Amino acid sequence: MSEEQHSPVGIDGQFVAPEIDPTKPSIARVYDYVIGGKQHFAIDREVSKALYAAVPEIGQLGRCGRITLLRSVRWLVSEAGIDQIVDLGSGLPTEGNVHEIALEHNPDCHVVYVDNDPIVLAHARALLAEHENVTVIRADIRDVDGLFSDPELLRLIDPDRPFAVIASSILHHLDDDEANATAAALREKLSPGSYLMSANFLDDDEPRAKELERAFLEGGLGTGRFRTWDELAAFLDGLELVEPGLVYANDWRPDEHTPRDSPVQTLFATAIGRKPA
């Protein structure tokens, strides 16, 4: 079996579901490739060439998104007291997963991963098989009503109590109308005291953002939009922003793991908003 035909090896060396098409690139697998993972096909590596050509430090951008996500989860659980998390577009498991960080700080925390990529679902189900407080569901994040009526989500998440929704590196893969509608629907679902974390590609009026957006849109993936500060702020409209507000991701409550003076600093922004009582 050639490299192009061979399925990535899953958890414990098992092959993933045959429904996965190795001839089509996957956002999750491309992301896995650029951050140094092993779950990707030749087509994903081929598509990534356009991203590296636009911004050679694309791997640092991917890792920036990852460590920002984990830093946010740590804050939500350990400082904001959140014990329910819904992670949208969770992607492939990697070192330091959302549930691992959450359970480290609160062993009773409930985590629901949401994705629609078959390889992501296969890996997550294998990884989470023995976790009572953690699950993964297949859903389209644009169908927010359907998501929050899913019995498996409701088994672990009480939407009447404060919870957190993680929208990290996901809204920038939707077009403008879909992204705004999805963010608005998510804000509507938040109960008082709940949080929405939003982390996205940023167009801070520099050529690299436009070049990288073109590489995403025209290089095979077809998604990956860089938005202005005002456009990103709209995703959190009506919410109280946690300090320091909407900022470059590496400036959001940095810790010892946060890169300083990163060459991709101006290409990614994040914020967490709280729904007031």
Condensed summary:
Helix content is 37%, strand content 14%. With 277 residues, the chain is an alpha/beta fold.
Detailed description of the structure:
The N terminus is likely disordered. This protein is α/β, with parallel strands linked by helices and 277 residues long. The longest helix has 21 residues. α2 runs antiparallel to α9 and α3 packs parallel to α4. Strands 1, 2, 3, 4, 5, 6, 7 and 8 form an eight-stranded mixed sheet that branches. It contains ten helices and eight strands. It has one domain: Vaccinia Virus protein VP39 (Rossmann fold). It is globular. The N and C termini lie far apart (58 Å). InterPro entries: SAM-dependent_MTases_sf, SAM_dep_MeTrfase_SAV2177_type. One of its GO terms (molecular function) is methyltransferase activity. This is S-adenosyl methyltransferase.
Strands, helices and their partners?
Layout: H1 27-34, H2 42-54, H3 58-78, E1 84-88, H4 98-105, E2 110-115, H5 118-127, E3 134-138, H6 144-147, H7 151-156, E4 164-168, H8 176-189, E5 195-201, H9 207-218, H10 229-234, E6 240-241, E7 247-248, E8 268-274
Parallel strand pairs: 1-2, 1-4, 2-3, 4-5
Antiparallel strand pairs: 5-8, 6-8, 7-8
Percentage of β-strand residues: 5-15%
Question: What class do helices, strands and sheet pairing give?
Answer: alpha/beta
Series of secondary-structure elements, N-terminal to C-terminal:
HHHEHEHEHHEHEHHEEE
Largest sheet: 8 strands, mixed
Organism: Pseudonocardia thermophila
GO molecular function: methyltransferase activity
Protein name: S-adenosyl methyltransferase
Keywords: Methyltransferase, Transferase
